[in-house]
Amino acid sequence: MRISVIGTGVVGRTLAHGLAGGGHDVVVGTRSPDETAAREEWSDSNLRLAPMEGVADGADLVVNATSGVGTLEALGRVGPSLDGKVLLDISNPLDFSRGFPPTLSVKDTDSLAEQVQRAFPETRVVKSLNMMTASVMLDPIPGTTVFVAGNDAEARRTVADLLRSFGWEHLIEFPSIEAARGLEMWLPLWVRLMGVLGTPEFNLRIVTREAPA
Ligand SMILES: NC(=O)c1ccc[n+]([C@@H]2O[C@H](COP(=O)([O-])OP(=O)(O)OC[C@H]3O[C@@H](n4cnc5c(N)ncnc54)[C@H](OP(=O)(O)O)[C@@H]3O)[C@@H](O)[C@H]2O)c1
Fold this sequence. Notes:
The chain is α/β, with parallel strands linked by helices. It has helices spanning 10-21, 33-37, 71-78, 112-119, 134-137, 153-166, 180-185, 187-197, and strands at 2-6, 25-30, 48-51, 61-64, 86-89, 94-95, 103-104, 124-128, 145-150, 170-174. Strands 3-2-1-4-5-8-9-10 form an eight-stranded mixed beta sheet, sandwiched between helices. Strand 2 (25-30), helix 2 and strand 3 form a beta-alpha-beta unit. The chain is globular and about 60 Å long. Residues 7-12, 30-32, 36, 65-68, 70, 73-74, 90-92, 94, 130, 133-134 line the site of NADP nicotinamide-adenine-dinucleotide phosphate (NAP). NADP nicotinamide-adenine-dinucleotide phosphate binds at residues 7-12, 30-32, 36, 65-68, 70, 73-74, 90-92, 94, 130, 133-134.
C-alpha cells in the first residue's frame, strides 16, 4: 500500500520504518522536512520526508501520529488530499501544560477522533493503536487486544487487515467513531500503570466469561 504517515515522533518513526520494512511505499509528513532531517533521530533514516501539505495525495492509507494538541493543525495542513482517505488515528488528546501526569483536552462527551471526523467529514477516520506504546504497535504482546473504532466498515477492515499483518490476532471492532471516547480515556490509567509497572511495554487483554449453559 501507499501509506502517508503524518508525524515524526517515536510513533511516526516506528510505524514508518516498520511499514517500509514490510514492503509498503511510505512517505512521512512533517512541517519542515529539512529541520526534521537534521534531527539526530532522523539522521540515519532513508525514509522519504515531505511537507504536510498534500502529503496524502495518492495514499491508500494515512496515519495520524501527531501530538494531540497539534493534530487539527497538522491535518489542516494536509488539507484536501485527505478527502476520501482512510485515516488511522493514533493520536491522544494529552495536555501536558500542567506537567505530569497529563490531563485530557477532550473527553466524556467528545473525543479527538470525533473532532477530526467532524473537521474532515469526507475522511474515514479509524481510531486504533492509541492505547499502547509505539514498540508494541508493530510487535504485539501475544494474547493481548487491540481496538478498532470507526463509522465506515470498509475503512475498519483496511485497518484491521493491516493490524493482522503486524501479528495482531485479538481485535475488537466498534462500529462508531464515538467509541474513541473510551479508547482515549484509557490514557489516564495507562500513564499510571506505566508508573507502577515500571515499563511502557504492556497491553490490555479482554477476556469474557463463558455464557452459562
Ligand atoms: N509515544 C507513544 O508511544 C504513543 C503511543 C500511543 C499513542 N501516542 C500518540 O501518538 C501521537 C504521536 O506521539 P509521538 O510521541 O510519536 O509524537 P509527538 O511528540 O506527540 O508529536 C510529534 C508530531 O506532532 C507534530 N506536531 C506537533 N505540534 C504540531 C502543530 N502545532 N502543528 C502541526 N504538527 C504538529 C510534529 O510535527 P513536526 O514533524 O513538524 O515536528 C510531529 O510530527 C500523539 O498524539 C500521542 O499521544 C503516542
